[in-house]
Amino acid sequence: MPKVLMIGPSLDAMGGISTVENNIMKWSNRNEGSIEFISTTAEGGKFKKLSIALVAYMKYLSRLNACDLVHVHMASRGSYRRKKIFMRAAFFRNKPVLLHLHGSEFGVWFDEECSEAERRDISHSFDCCSKVVVLSEEWKEFLLKRHICSLDRIVVVHNAVDVPEVNAIDYSCNTVLFMGRLDARKSPDLLLRAAKRVLKTHPDARFVFGGDGDVPAYEQLADELGIGDRCSFIGWAKGEKKTKPFATVACSAFLRRMRACL
What we know:
CATH architecture of the largest domain: 3-Layer(aba) Sandwich
Number of domains: 2
Mean pLDDT: 91
CATH class of the largest domain: Alpha Beta
């Protein structure tokens, strides 16, 4: 089996990228895969992040010759600027690079914040990759319309979900789950406003919000809407704290602004 060197945020980081990374590592462990993961960043201040990045780069260089493929998890802004350094080292050594693009703000960053020189640099980096994985057809169209990379390099791979062998969901319960960062992009405010309307006809319904972000602001909004007693905010959830709510709710709500920018 090919030896893969995978780089990205810490496996313990909060957010969707680390969830994807953990799913890949779980698959590798179950199937005797050969994937070595190197964390390039973690939560903390600038000094901590810089230290982690430097150590990661040195470790990466020491492993690069022995690997068959480099798998890069990347978002936008600082994530691109960090990963570009790793990618260029792989290009120099003729190692194939699989670029896994995350981050719904990539479009805003590319269109509104990058200079022409930066856009050319991004396009060059993408076109040097063997394949570029995007999460949806919309992102595929975005890359093509901006001429960021060619069609033959783009592969659409939706985020995977672990499906249990036995469906243990109790559909008779009255709880709705929101799981994700509590910010304007993920739109928990929309669910809270919808919840107020739902509770008029289903007063026994409950709404559970799991995730980091500006939790106090959304708790305050729930109180202002008069539904605070029907909403629970459980914070960032992982492991059993994350899987248990999914098994005890009637449905999950997924809302997001800026899913794609066409």
